[in-house]
Each structure stands twice: as structure tokens, then as C-alpha cells.
Design a protein that fits this description.
CATH topology of the largest domain: Quinone Oxidoreductase, Chain A, domain 1
Shape: globular
Distance between the termini: 23 Å
Strand content: 25-35%
Structural class: alpha/beta
CATH architecture of the largest domain: Alpha-Beta Complex
Largest sheet: 7 strands, mixed
Number of helices: 11
Helix content: 25-40%
Oligomer: single chain
Bound molecules: zinc ion
Number of strands: 18
Length: 342
């Protein structure tokens, strides 16, 4: 049996490569030679052993790009040499949500890496229907970031943003930065980005934020209120996943405003200031992954509207993946997106 190495997280903080069977693609699958794979915030939750819905050991990695090297017998849209990226979600196709086209809400939803198909490996097998062609204008490095861009895009669409809205984005990780960029293009007027890292806040200004606020040296709520004549912003996004930032996001919006949640909460047992919802008629919107967003994300990136290149701060060979994870968990690091290259 021929094999190839695939990264697994076997215990908190520990990456191990496991030999995986090198097989022919199934009839509806393309076999991809991975060229770039990026570490996602959710991979970090997994690395810490604190992902709310995944147990260790688990394969890891779902943000990738590569070239098609083989196609299954029923595949019609791709051929050898095509440059592609993958929507790594697995939906059952027959539950009521899938039948309504809301496959991101599938009752049996899963992801490739949870089924032993991680992206930190030389090869990746993907169903044709979840594979997307990359235009030549996008590098493999950028192609691997279409997945997080789709997450941000889905949330910004769900937020219902309108021309002229003021926006506060809590969290300047990759997703928060992408949200900053997209809300600016969607007509956001003032875009406040709140984080605790000066390095990432600087990035937020390059991505589209009009004002960055370091939550350690300034009080984000004071700054936002002062700047909005005490009103608060029209919309806020919570892209951190913590009780404190959720409370701040809820406090930062004006009466009648709304908050969109897209951070992963490691601790789901948190307190929420419920009185705000009624007294101020605040809306709370959840955003789960993506559905029908990949094409739009690719087009936005192709047209140069989102500076994906700007986000890749570190590159490691696959064999040094552990270093990439360790770096991202080092306090005060200056990393946004870490990619492995092949
Ligand atoms: Zn991701
Ligand atoms: Zn389903």
C-alpha cells in the first residue's frame, strides 16, 4: 500500500504525521496536489484541545489550494493541471435544510478534516461539487484564503449592512480583518476595529478599517460613543469568541442596531447582558460558515477588492507545521495567516 503523511493533532499542543493511504480518486472526486494550506483560528481551538465540537485525535486543516492531478470517472468540470481550492464542508444532501439549499445548516454537517482528510498533507481528495477553479490572477497562497474569506463574506451578507452604516469589528484575527475589508466595500462609513495587538490593528487599517482601537490602552466603548455622539454604531461583529468582547459588541451598537456573531466560543457557558436586547431593541445574528459564498469570494479576490496577500505573514514547510501552530499561540506574536508550502 502506498501512503502519504497527513498532519493530526493527537493531544493538546501536539502535531503528528500519520501515514494515510494513497488511493485513486472516487468517481465524483478530484485528487489535488496541495500547494498551500493555511492555519485557521478554528485549527488553533483544535490544537488546544478546546474545539467545541471535535475530539482529539483529529486530522487538521481545511484551508487549501492546489492543482488537480487526477479526476474520477464521473468528473466533468475539472482536468489535470487545473488550479483549485476546496469548500471543505460535508453536507448530507437529503435533510430538509440541504433540500432547501441551506447546506451550511445541514442536520448532519461535517467537515473533511473531521473525516480523516486534513489539508496539511501533500494530497487532498475533494468532491467535484465542492471544488472551485482559481483564476490565474490568484496565487496558491491567496487561493488557500478563499475559505476564511467566505466565512467573513457570509457574515457580512447576514448582517444586512447598508450604505453609510457605521461598524465596529471586535477581533483583528484573519476573520475580523476580512470583515473590515468587506464592510468597507459594502458601504460601511466608519469602520472601527478593536483588538489587543498593535500589529494586527495596523493590519486592520491596511484592510479597510478607518479607526483602530487597542482595547488594552483605550476603552473601546468610550471611543466609539464619543465618535458617534453617544449613539453607538449601526452594526457590530464579534470575531473573537469571548464573553467580554460579546458584551462590548452589544454595548457598542446604537438602539435598534445589531450584532453579528462569528467567533468560536470555547466556553459556551457565558453570560449575556439580556436587558440590552429589549431596552435597546438590539438584534443578534448568528453566522455559520458559508453556503453559496465561494464563487463570490473568488470574484471579490480576483477583482482585487480584498488584499489577501497582505494577510500571509509566515510560511513554513509542511514538516515544520508544529512551529506554525506554536508561533500562533505565542503571546505577542506578529502572525495573521501562517501557511505551509509544498
Ligand atoms: Zn477556516
Ligand atoms: Zn443535510
Amino acid at each position: 500500500m502506498k501512503t502519504f503523511p497527513m498532519a493530526y493533532i493527537t493531544a493538546p499542543g501536539k502535531i503528528e504525521f500519520r501515514e494515510t493511504e494513497l488511493r485513486e480518486p472516487g468517481s465524483d472526486e478530484v485528487m489535488i496536489q496541495v500547494q498551500s494550506a493555511a492555519i485557521c483560528g478554528s485549527d488553533l481551538h483544535l490544537f488546544k484541545g478546546k474545539h467545541p465540537s471535535v475530539q482529539l485525535p483529529s486530522a487538521v486543516g481545511h484551508e487549501l489550494s492546489g492543482s488537480v492531478i487526477k479526476t474520477g470517472t464521473a468528473v466533468t468540470r475539472f482536468r489535470e493541471g487545473d488550479r483549485v481550492t476546496v469548500e471543505p464542508v460535508i453536507a448530507c444532501g437529503h435533510c430538509e435544510f440541504c433540500l432547501r439549499g441551506q447546506y451550511h445548516l445541514c442536520s448532519n454537517i461535517s467537515f473533511q478534516y473531521r473525516k480523516g482528510q486534513g489539508a496539511f498533507a501533500p494530497y487532498f481528495y475533494a468532491p467535484e461539487k465542492r471544488t472551485y477553479l482559481l483564476p490565474d490572477s490568484l496565487s496558491y497562497e491567496e487561493g488557500a484564503l478563499i475559505e476564511p474569506l467566505s466565512v467573513a463574506l457570509h457574515a457580512v451578507k447576514k448582517s444586512g449592512i447598508r450604505l453609510g452604516d457605521s461598524v465596529a469589528v471586535f477581533g483583528a484575527g484573519a476573520i475580523g480583518l476580512l470583515v473590515c475589508s468587506l464592510v468597507k466595500h459594502a458601504g460601511g462609513s466608519n469602520v472601527y476595529c478593536v483588538d489587543v495587538s498593535d500589529f494586527r490593528l495596523q493590519k486592520s487599517l491596511e484592510m479597510g478599517a478607518t479607526r483602530s482601537i487597542n482595547n488594552l490602552s483605550e476603552n473601546a466603548l468610550d471611543v466609539i460613543r464619543e465618535d458617534t455622539r453617544g449613539m453607538g454604531v449601526d452594526l457590530a461583529f464579534e470575531a473573537v469568541g469571548r464573553e467580554q468582547t460579546l458584551a462590548q459588541a452589544l454595548e457598542s451598537v446604537r438602539k435598534g442596531g445589531s450584532v453579528t456573531l462569528l467567533g468560536i466560543f470555547e466556553d459556551s457557558d457565558i453570560r449575556v447582558p439580556v436587558h440590552l436586547f429589549i431596552q435597546r431593541e438590539i438584534g443578534l445574528v448568528g453566522s455559520q460558515g458559508y453556503a453559496w459564498d465561494f464563487d463570490d469570494a473568488i470574484t471579490l479576490a480576483h477583482n482585487g477588492l480584498v488584499p489577501l496577500k497582505n494577510m500571509v505573514t509566515h510560511r513554513f514547510p509542511l514538516s515544520e507545521l508544529q512551529k506554525g501552530f506554536d508561533l500562533l499561540l505565542t503571546p505577542g506574536n506578529t502572525a495573521v495567516k501562517v501557511e505551509t508550502q509544498f
